[in-house]
Amino acid sequence: MLVALCATSIVVLALLWEVSLPWWERTLETRRARKAAREAQGADYDPGRERRAEQRARELLKSCVNEEEWAMYRDLGFLRVWGGRAQGPDDGRDADELRGVPYAYLVYPHRPIVAYLPQTGRLLNEYCVEFPDETRPYGSPRLPDSDDVLAKWMALKGDERRLINEANLHLPGRQLDPRQIQRDIWRLGQWERERLAHANDGAKRRPRAAGPADPTS
Fold first, then answer.
1. Cα distance between residue 10 and residue 6, in whole Å
2. Between these two residues, 29 and 73, which has the higher pLDDT value?
3. Out of 116-120, 197-201, 209-213, which region has the weakest mean confidence (pLDDT)?
4. What is the pTM of this model?
């Protein structure tokens, strides 16, 4: 009886091994292919590539925007772009109320553009736009952070209406925390006041140019 059970077990194990062998072979082949792909990618991967790409993007952004905008992005991590439409912001909820009212956008890297009213801090809309890097044969198709900000800045400056019309429109709070946006607006106000105070202090310290000599002296 024991011999029969042992023989039966051996037969069953042999059958199971024969059935599972193709699965094991496929699994091992898949693992080998993945390992080869990782090794091939690692041979060409430069850990400093992303950092150098962002550095080049920051230099390009600095050369395109004005001095105040560059300082704003450098210090705060976002840009404010003033709206240029004479009829005011594109807000269907209160189109008549906001006609002609000054408005602006906060531009973040890889986040929606936020329209708001600088006088009150009221948030209007979120505009979701993407600028993928179609030229990169490796890694993520996302642009470096500063390139993404520059692309949005150029689009708003060049054709604001087209960008707004083509973007995915959402009410505030859909993707970004309104409290964080309000804090950023407050930070921007503090930054501008400190910058103005620093400029005024610098003007007071500069020596006045000597005027013409008194001809009667």
1. 6
2. 73
3. 209-213
4. 0.68
Does a structural domain hold residue 117?
yes
Question: pLDDT over 70 for what percent of the chain?
Answer: 65
Q: What angle do CA 17, 18, 22 make, to 5 degrees?
A: 100
166-179 in b/e burial notation, b at 16+ Cβ within 10 A? ebebeebeeebeee
Question: The tokens 């029969």 sit on which residue?
Answer: 4
Would residue 48 count as lying in a domain? Answer: no
Give the Cα-Cα-Cα angle 134, 34, 27 (nearest 5 degrees): 140
What's the CA gap between 113 and 169, in Å, rounded? 10
Q: Which two tokens stand for residue 211?
A: 């005027």
Residue 42 in domain: no
Which pairs with CB-CB distance under 8 Å and at least 24 residues apart come from 149-154? 149/61, 149/73, 149/78, 149/79, 149/107, 149/108, 149/109, 150/57, 150/60, 150/61, 150/64, 150/65, 152/81, 152/107, 152/113, 153/61, 153/64, 153/65, 153/69, 153/79, 153/81, 153/107, 154/64
Count of the separate structural domains present in the chain: 1
* Residue labelled with tokens 């689009």: 155
Domain that holds residue 155: 56-204
Backbone angles phi, psi at 119, to 5 degrees: -65, -35
